[in-house]
């Protein structure tokens, strides 16, 4: 312990002199260290904020793409339904009288409009 006393006293004395020169009474070395620590924390917070923003943007983009995929899938299903119903109506045209075909078409159109309102 005695062998480090001289080194300790030298460091202490330089800190005391620095504190005496500074208006706040705090050694400049401590102020510089605190400033550096603050800069590092700010840089880390900025990095975290940027990462959160990047993830939010990515999630929003993925959500939008999923909505578009669902809309395309719905459109494909509707085309299939309409095509199937049209083929069925065409087949009915060969079997049923004309006024019954018109009624069937009206029912199909009504069903289609109701389904489109649900989407």
TrEMBL record:
Gene3D superfamilies for the chain: PWI domain (1.20.1390.10)
Matching InterPro entries: PWI_dom, PWI_dom_sf, Ser/Arg_repetitive_matrix
Keywords linked to the UniProt accession: Coiled coil, mRNA processing
Lineage of origin: Eukaryota, Viridiplantae, Streptophyta, Embryophyta, Tracheophyta
SUPFAM superfamilies (UniProt xref): PWI domain
PANTHER family (alphabetical): SERINE/ARGININE REGULATED NUCLEAR MATRIX PROTEIN, SERINE_ARGININE REPETITIVE MATRIX PROTEIN 1
UniProt name for this protein: PWI domain-containing protein
Coiled-coil stretches: 31-73
Keyword Transcription in record: no
Organism of this sequence: Spinacia oleracea
Gene name for this UniProt entry: LOC110791233
Domain PWI, residue spans: 1-33
Pfam families per the UniProt record, alphabetical: PWI (PF01480)
């Amino acid at each position: 312990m005695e062998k480090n006393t001289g080194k300790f006293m030298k460091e202490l004395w330089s800190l005391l002199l620095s504190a005496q020169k500074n208006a706040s009474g705090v050694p400049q070395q401590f102020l510089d260290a605190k400033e550096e620590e603050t800069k590092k924390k700010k840089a880390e917070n900025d990095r975290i904020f940027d990462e959160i923003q990047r993830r939010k943007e990515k999630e929003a983009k993925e959500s939008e793409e999923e909505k578009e995929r669902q809309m395309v899938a719905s459109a494909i299903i509707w085309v299939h339904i309409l095509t199937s119903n049209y083929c069925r109506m065409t087949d009915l045209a060969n079997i049923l009288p004309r006024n019954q075909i018109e009624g069937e078409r009206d029912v199909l159109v009504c069903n289609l409009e109701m389904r489109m309102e649900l989407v």
